[in-house]
Each structure stands twice: as structure tokens, then as C-alpha cells.
Amino acid sequence: MLHPDYQYAPKLVTPMASMIASGEFDVVLGSRILGGGARSGGMPTYKYIANRGLTFIQNLLLRQKLSEYHTGYRAWRRTVLVVPYRLPARSVISPAVGRLPSEQLFSEQKEWSSV
Q: Which of 3, 4, 40, 90 has the fewest beta carbons closer than 10 A?
């Protein structure tokens, strides 16, 4: 998924997809924060401050160390999005997506520069 405000370079779609296709990662999140281009890329100050604050809180709650959770630049393996159980035929389908333990989703964060 590519964010529509041009804060991410589209040329990174292929490397991100390759990371998923290689089988090494199930989820890849792009980060405007690691590259230092969030503000220079056009992110308004109030959004930057809110993003950093919310990310700090989420890192505390999930015991993780991600640079950004609210990214519009992501790639994921289909199996991450599939609910891991079968629903009864007459049940109401909830909009919630099945969740894996955070250790599996956020096991590693690597910094990638623009290709």
C-alpha cells in the first residue's frame, strides 16, 4: 500500500515486496522517521508531533521499538491478514482482523535508505 501524499518514494515498493517474497519477513513497514524526511517531505508539524507521541505510547504498550506505526507505506504477506480460524456458516463477520502476537509481527526493524 502506498500513501497518496507522496511522502514515500514509489521506487521502494519493489524492495519491500522482495523482502516479503524472500520469506524473511511477514510484514514490512516503511518509515518516514528513520530517513529523517518526514518534515522535509511535507508532514505538518502537528501530525509529526502526534505521530511521535502515539508511536511512543504504542511502543510502551506493545514492548516494541518501532520508529513509526502510522505509516502508509506497508507490505504484508497474505497469511498475516487471514483470520486463523473458520467462522460458522451463519455467523456475522466482524471487521476485526485476526491478530498474531506482537513478537511475531514486530520481531525486527531494519533501516532502508532510498534505492
A: 90
